[in-house]
Amino acid sequence: MNRNKFIKITGLTLAGLSILPHFSYTSLQPEFTRDQLIGKDESDIVGDSYTTKMHRDAAIAFQKMKLEAAKVNIDIELVSAYRSFQRQKEIFEAKYKKYTGQGLAPIDAIKKIIEYSTMPGTSRHHWGTDIDIIDGNAKPRPKNVLQPELFHGEGPFCKIKDWLTENANSFGFYEVYTNDANRKGFKYEPWHFSYAPVSKPMLIEYKKLDVKKILQQEKILGSEHFTDAFIAQYRKENILDINAELL
Ligand SMILES: [Zn+2]
């Protein structure tokens, strides 16, 4: 082989390798580590701030969606995207200390926390595929932006809600906690969307993990009070009772 031909082939091989990580999430067998699934490995996460960190594939799709929405004067603004295990642990444990300090029994404190927050290691925000979004152009801007009623009736986020209903799926984003009276687990969240091409294979892998073991291995405050029955119900309702398009 002459030198020119060798350089050409090497170049092609490198080009092939550089697209492999992308394919591994879509057409090839997906591979995610335990640490990626619980927010302890940021190797596929891009972005530099709390509100913009995202899985690299989700970030590309998000930018495309944002540009499209801008054409009709909607500014898709991230309220929250990737969240690390450590951050979720801090949120959970602060609430656990507060509620048990007020006299609640440990298991009741945990049940109260999971009305609005996930247990560390179980948040879809750990994957970098899930985002909480509002319209930055909405006026007047509410103080507390993540309230379902703001997305309905005469609410300031009706415009973005209608636009997302019409367009989000074509960019790969799906609502997770839908407005379905029969759904259990987390309440309706019209602001929470998930990038399905990555989050669907991630959920398949996540289902293989032993959630109780992880919570105990990671020494989460209060984790000695998790019973098998409690974890089984949490898995069934909070993790799996979501938009069927994401299962
Ligand atoms: Zn969310």
Description of the structure:
With 247 residues, the chain is α+β, with helices and mostly antiparallel strands. Helices cover 44% and strands 9% of the residues. The chain is built from nine helices and six strands; from the N terminus they run H-H-E-E-H-E-H-H-E-H-E-E-H-H-H. The chain has helices spanning 3-26, 34-37, 56-70, 85-101, 106-113, 158-167, 196-206, 211-217, 228-239, and strands at residues 45-46, 54-55, 76-80, 130-135, 173-175, 192-195. The strands form two sheets. Strands 3-4-6-5 form a four-stranded antiparallel sheet. A two-stranded antiparallel ribbon has the order 1-2. A hairpin with a 7-residue loop joins strand 1 and strand 2 (54-55). The radius of gyration is 20 Å and the shape is globular. Residues 5-18 have low confidence and may be disordered. The protein binds zinc ion. The site of zinc ion has 5 residues, from strand 4.
Low-confidence parts: 5-18
What is the average per-residue confidence, as pLDDT, rounded to a whole number?
90
Compute the separation of the termini in Å: 50 Å
Structural class: alpha+beta
The strand order across the widest sheet is 3-4-6-5
Rg, nearest Å: 20 Å
- Tertiary shape: globular
